[in-house]
Amino acid sequence: MNFFLETLIGGLLAGTLYSLVAIGFVLIYKASGVFNFAQGTMLLFAALTFVSLREQGLSFALALLLTVLVMIVGALLIERLVLRPLVNRSQITLFMATLGLSFIIEGLAQGLMGAQVRALDLGIEDVPLFVGEIMISQFDLIAAGVSALTVAVLALLFNKTRIGVALRAVADDTRAALSLGINLNRIWQIVWAVAGVVGLVAGLLWGARQGVQFSLSLVVLKALPVLIIGGFTSIGGAIVGGLIVGAAENLAEAYIGPLIGGGITPWFAYFLALIFLYIRPSGLFGDRIIERV
User: Fold this and answer.
1) Predicted confidence (pLDDT) at residue 288 exceeds the cutoff of 70
2) Is residue 235 situated within a structural domain?
3) Residue 7 located in a structural domain
């Protein structure tokens, strides 16, 4: 039972990091209907920027502040120069634009900051903590706390402020929101800026966990099953989907892996996502699309 609980808790804590990446997708998708494939490279660029500033001798706080500013300015430029000119284009056009953007950001990051692997030290030691006889990773526990705090701040922003009300209006009915005088371009700017900051938080946590390297951008692929399971339009769904994926991966690797020779973690999340596509295509909390003919 102790082994089961350790495996389950470790998976749930890891799942919060998956959720954090997925939330960046949900924010942009809810506001503009764009699946932002560049979210992974935004995460990478944030981590690389922070590490590079730290290597220049800047303090942790100053490097973090400057990185936040860089991500906000970058997100605003993306919205203004890439997405706004493509308003009213097809979904596949917008998706291909973000796909191309991801390669541009990756190339820009490599040209400005190099391609070598960097260690990212957040001052969090990865040491075991014991709750009774159950061992928990200190890093995973703190990372989960940071993720939960980020989600709480987002919940307050989008549920208790005028900006949040406007965002929900745009997500529910864009034309009706425009008729009420809501500035759609301003909403998109805010959402892209917030998604950039969320990418920064996720990039720092993932970078500290596995090093800042260009494979970090591939974490975007692990967010896809989370979105399919939780729903593309729900922040709560992204959280639940991340927890499900993290826990299921750990339990499957621990109990099914030995029976088939291991190697379950890389593909099990996609297996779960495929099952959900059959039984609930919109995800647990996603909006069902109803087309009237």
Assistant:
1) no
2) no
3) yes
Distance from C-alpha of 137 to C-alpha of 150, rounded to nearest angstrom: 20
Rounded Cα–Cα distance for residues 46 and 3 (Å): 36
Distance, C-alpha 72 to centroid of its chain: 16
Phi and psi torsions of 127, nearest 5° = -115, 155
In a domain, 268, yes or no: no
d(C-alpha 73, C-alpha 75), whole Å: 5
**173: three-class secondary structure by DSSP:** coil
Q: What is the pLDDT of residues 83-131, one digit of tens each?
A: 778 777 777 888 888 888 888 888 888 887 777 778 787 877 777 777 7
CA distance 46 to 65: 11
The dihedral over CA atoms of 210, 215, 220, 225, expressed in degrees to the nearest 10, equals -80
Domain count, the chain: 1
Three-class SS of residue 145? helix
What's this model's pTM, rounded to 2 decimal places?
0.84
Report the half-sphere exposure of 114 (CA within 13 A, side-chain side).
7
Domain with 148 in it? 2-216
Task: Assess if residue 15 is contained within a domain.
Answer: yes
From residue 293, alpha-carbon distances to 33, 126, 222, 282, 290 in Å are: 22, 56, 35, 20, 10
What CA–CA distance (Å, rounded) separates 90 from 93?
A: 5
Query: CA angle, 81 as apex, 75 and 82 as ends, to 5°?
Result: 80
